[in-house]
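Hi, here's the filled form for the chain we discussed.

Project: internal
Contact: R.S.
Residues: 73
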Amino acid sequence: MEKVIVDCSTGEQTVVPLTAAEIAELEAAAAKAAEDQAAAEAEAQAKAAAKAAAEAKLAALGLTADEIAALSK
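And the returned structure, exactly as it came back:
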């Protein structure tokens, strides 16, 4: 892996290899991002399941689909 260093005053670009610490930091950041995305997806699924369960309970009480939709607004 490499990184590009740009000197803004001259526009000169230098390509240098990443250090072991930089590679480890990138890998840790990627792992954290994957964990965060998985947690967000799990939370969204849990909310959807809770909403579906609540709507089913309201329907079991005799509310119509229109009445249930009106409660969700």
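Let me know if anything looks off before we file it.
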